[in-house]
């Protein structure tokens, strides 16, 4: 699903956010990206959904080389990628239902169908009673679930989640992880950036650890120990 | 399925944008309304100016002086040539010309006493149709007539015609320059105002793009808002023009009556004028919003 070859991302005046990263994520995998703050987790995710261009190296997503992708093709790539943002990125003046349906509106799905699918997804994340609420009226955990519902409503091939359980209590963390695991069971490739080591250790899934922009370990999952890039 | 659903989404998004920022949209609409009202007034002024130039042109008469020694057949041939070109021809005999001169001179006509009975040549006074009142046409007609053996001279007030034509040309150019300046200024104001509206919704645009919206998807509601503002501005401008023509125009006509203008007339096709203003408004609104959203997306 994702292949990164010698990827470097540097911002002017700073040490590289990512340095010579090699990483392969197979279709249907569930991968945790861990590491301290500033390790490059968010940058790696942003490169995958073309929010930033790589300074050097090649990145293949679903077989497409995003380093050479035309600006006009980026939206079509993003339609196959669900993203759970650390800061939620919900539209404050739109209802929960409208926020979730936004991913379908962009695709031109008829309103009735998009609202039906958004309702079904909100039911799946346990928010069917909040469809007409505005995001700012919800708790942090509820907003996080809305974001997950929006990311999954168009059944993307790949789900990227950036600190999806940050600032949540253990009960809610478990709930969110269950939602992501369920999506993975349904066939979606999932990459979760987190520094919640307890949750990572408990999951028994593949863990890629980043430090200072480099992959320092890659272990767990179906094949226990992987190459360190 | 996509196109209709997207059109509905754009419409809802545009309505929501207008609802959330009524002040910004009102400023744009008023700017467009003022520009369209000014264009409408300028259009009326241009229409009246054309009529004024046309009516002055009606005063242009061509006098063809004939050779007194020419045969009546040769003189008749000149008149026939002119009449075949849809011109109205009055034949003036030497006696009639002298009578007219005596009338015009009044007491000073005493000085003509010593002259012979027919001191003036016979002539033809020609009223040319509207299509031939340009300096070029009149010049060509004079050349053609002067080449005829029975004609000794042609007078068509060359200088007056040239001057009138130059004035009309200058006014038209000034009108175009004013039109370009007005449209340019309106576009700048409308696009700057709409950019405020887009900037206020930058978060929404960013999120739309992150979930896979194309630039066209992002642009469409803003373009729709621009077009709607243009149409609303046109409606206000049309109402203003109707009110102006019914209340102020007659008073203005009375005030300027010393100019002996032909008088402000009602547009013979008011619906066409309304349609033109609506199309101009929508085009201005669309262009202004296109400039604004294009600049925002490229920033």
Give a nutshell description of this structure.
Chain A is built from seven helices and ten strands. With 229 residues, chain A is of the alpha/beta class.
Keywords:
heterodimer, A: 229 residues, 10 strands, 32% helix, B: alpha+beta, four-stranded antiparallel sheet, 9 helices
Write the layout of secondary structure elements.
The complex is a heterodimer of chains A (229) and B (299).
Chain A: E1 2-9, E2 18-25, E3 30-34, H1 41-48, E4 56-61, E5 64-65, H2 74-78, E6 81-84, H3 96-105, H4 111-124, H5 140-152, E7 158-162, H6 170-185, E8 189-193, H7 197-203, E9 206-211, E10 214-219
Parallel strand pairs in A: 3-8, 3-9, 6-7, 7-8
Antiparallel strand pairs in A: 1-2, 1-4, 4-5, 9-10
Helix pairs in contact in A: 3-4, 3-5, 4-5, 5-6
Chain B: H1 2-20, H2 22-57, E1 61-66, H3 72-84, E2 88-92, H4 94-105, E3 123-127, H5 135-146, E4 151-155, H6 158-200, H7 202-210, H8 215-255, H9 270-298
Antiparallel strand pairs in B: 1-3, 1-4, 2-3
Textual characterization of the structure:
The complex is a heterodimer of chains A (229) and B (299). By secondary structure, chain A is α/β, with parallel strands linked by helices. Helix content of chain A is 32%, strand content 24%. In chain A, the strands form two sheets. In chain A, strands 6-7-8-3-9-10 form a six-stranded mixed sheet, sandwiched between helices. In chain A, strands 2-1-4-5 form a four-stranded antiparallel sheet, with helices on one face. In chain A, β1 and β2 form a beta hairpin. Chain B is of the alpha+beta class. Chain B is 72% helix and 7% strand. In chain B, strands 2-3-1-4 form a four-stranded antiparallel sheet. Chain B starts with a helix and ends with a helix. The mean pLDDT of chain B is 82. At the A-B interface, α2 and α3 of A face α1 and α7 of B.
Sequence of secondary-structure elements of chain B: HHEHEHEHEHHHH
Number of DSSP strand runs of chain B: 4
Strand fraction of chain B: 5-15%
Amount of helix of chain B: over 70%
Shape, principal axes of CA atoms of chain B? elongated
Contiguous low-pLDDT stretches of chain B (5 residues minimum) are: none
Strand order of the largest sheet of chain A: 6-7-8-3-9-10
Residue-averaged pLDDT of chain B: 82
Uncertain runs of chain A: none
What does the overall shape of chain A look like?
globular
Strand order of the largest sheet of chain B: 2-3-1-4
| Mean pLDDT across all amino acids of chain A | 88
Give the class of chain A from helix and strand content and strand pairing. alpha/beta
**CA-based gyration radius of chain A:** 17 Å
Number of helices of chain A: 7
Percent of residues in beta strands of chain A: 15-25%
Largest interface: A-B, 24 and 23 residues
Distance between the termini of chain A: 18 Å
Assembly type of the chains comes to heterodimer
Relative helix content of chain A: 25-40%
């Amino acid at each position: 699903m994702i292949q990164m070859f010698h990827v470097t991302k540097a911002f002017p005046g700073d040490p590289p956010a990512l340095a010579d990263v090699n990483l392969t994520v197979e279709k249907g995998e569930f991968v945790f990206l861990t590491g301290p703050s500033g390790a490059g987790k968010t940058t790696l995710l942003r490169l995958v959904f073309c929010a930033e261009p790589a300074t050097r190296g090649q990145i293949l997503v679903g077989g497409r080389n995003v380093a050479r992708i035309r600006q006009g093709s980026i939206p079509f790539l993003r339609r196959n990628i669900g993203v759970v943002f650390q800061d939620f990125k919900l539209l404050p003046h739109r209802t929960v239902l409208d926020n979730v349906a936004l991913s379908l509106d962009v695709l031109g799905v008829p309103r009735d169908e998009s609202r039906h699918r958004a309702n079904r997804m909100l039911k799946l994340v346990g928010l069917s009673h909040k469809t007409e609420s505005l995001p700012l009226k919800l708790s942090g955990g509820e907003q996080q679930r809305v974001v997950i519902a929006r990311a999954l409503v168009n059944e993307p091939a790949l789900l990227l989640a950036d600190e999806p359980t940050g600032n949540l209590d253990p009960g809610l963390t478990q709930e969110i992880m269950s939602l992501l695991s369920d999506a993975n069971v349904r066939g979606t490739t999932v990459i979760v950036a987190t520094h919640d080591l307890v949750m990572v250790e408990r999951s028994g899934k593949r863990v890629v650890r980043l430090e200072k922009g480099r992959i320092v370990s890659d272990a767990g999952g179906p094949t226990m120990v992987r190459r360190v890039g | 399925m996509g196109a209709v659903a997207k059109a509905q989404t754009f419409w809802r998004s545009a309505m929501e944008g207008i609802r959330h920022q009524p002040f910004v949209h009102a400023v744009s609409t008023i700017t467009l309304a003022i520009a369209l009202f000014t264009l409408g007034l300028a259009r009326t002024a241009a229409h009246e100016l054309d009529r004024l130039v046309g009516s002055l042109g009606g005063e242009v008469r061509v006098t063809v002086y004939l050779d007194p020694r020419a045969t009546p057949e040769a003189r008749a041939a000149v008149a026939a040539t002119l009449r075949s070109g849809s011109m109205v021809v009055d034949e003036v005999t030497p006696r009639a010309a002298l009578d007219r001169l005596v009338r015009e001179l009044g007491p000073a006509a005493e000085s003509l006493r010593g002259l012979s009975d027919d001191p003036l040549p016979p002539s033809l006074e020609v009223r040319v149709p509207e299509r031939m009142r340009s300096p070029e046409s009149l010049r060509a007609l004079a050349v053609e007539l002067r080449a005829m053996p029975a004609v000794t001279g042609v007078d068509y007030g060359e200088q007056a015609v040239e001057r009138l034509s130059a004035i009309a040309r200058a006014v038209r150019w000034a009108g175009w320059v004013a039109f370009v300046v007005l449209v340019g200024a309106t576009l700048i104001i409308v696009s700057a105002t709409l950019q405020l509206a887009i900037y206020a919704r930058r978060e929404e645009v960013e999120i739309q793009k992150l979930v896979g919206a194309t630039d066209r998807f992002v642009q469409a509601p803003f373009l729709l808002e621009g077009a709607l503002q243009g149409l609303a501005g046109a409606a206000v401008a049309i109402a203003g023009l109707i009110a102006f023509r019914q209340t102020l125009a007659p008073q203005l006509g009375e005030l300027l009556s010393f100019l002996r203008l032909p008088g402000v007339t009602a547009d013979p096709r008011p619906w066409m004028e309304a349609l033109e203003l609506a199309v101009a408004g929508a085009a201005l609104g669309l262009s202004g919003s296109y400039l604004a959203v294009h600049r925002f997306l490229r920033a």
